[in-house]
């Protein structure tokens, strides 16, 4: 799929997820064939105020041939200044989050709340487009508490967005129920820019279903890739070996190059739980793993669990 002058190597992308899409997880997904990966949500205001923790989200892997940063904010001028910030100079594409349903994001008028204010959302896109020559893309939902996806998507295209990713749920749905692929297909038909379909893709069957119904240019996988970055190889029918221990060790090793041990161990806990999904691991064994403070010990415990229960 082409986004501006950039062409992805596959049409299966990793959807950005706050708390999950760190450099190590993105690198695993790229290794197995993800055509595009994006940073976690980065606060535009945090960049303006030179927040060190905000900068922590900006590390990228050499495997990321197209580097995408996702920004969130609700002030066009702040978004403009963030795009021009020197720390984003190595990113190829600017993605704007207009789909996040998290209460702390929505209460500030950001994320999916922007779908209630088309004029402001348009100003934000225009500001980001005018701030640099890089393509600007947008992640959106079907709407906030009512479906206005087609109208919103048309506005994004008119405002200068180069591509759109649509998660097939309203904000008020969170991640409950099922993504509405028919509504995503309406967005695809309504605009001429590339549309990426997102929601509930966890295997070949669901991947084929979303393609057949939406006819979108690409598919973005979020939760379906956590604990299973190999899903990209499976869907692309690439014969690449997948070993859970190796993946987890590589994630630990890479994160420890950038962050302190406490942050890494804490951050990896939610990943470890997903890698163990489907295994009959006793609750106490899981709890012991998740309470471990040492990266070395946690990794050894994870290896022993796999040897015992996988």
Gyration radius (Cα, Å) is 19 Å
Tell me roughly what share of residues is in helical segments.
Answer: 40-55%
How many helix segments? 14
Strand order of the largest sheet: 3-10-9-8-7-6-5-4
Helix-strand sequence = EEEHEHHEHEHHEHEHEHEHHHHH
- Outline the low-pLDDT stretches: none
Q: Strand tally, please?
A: 10
General shape:
globular
Oligomer: single chain
Mean pLDDT: 97
Strand-residue fraction?
5-15%
Relevant terms:
310 residues; alpha/beta; eight-stranded parallel sheet; two-stranded antiparallel sheet; 14 helices; 10 strands; globular
Model description:
With 310 residues, the protein is α/β, with parallel strands linked by helices. The chain contains 14 helices and ten strands. The strands form two sheets. The protein has an eight-stranded parallel β-sheet with strand order 3-10-9-8-7-6-5-4.
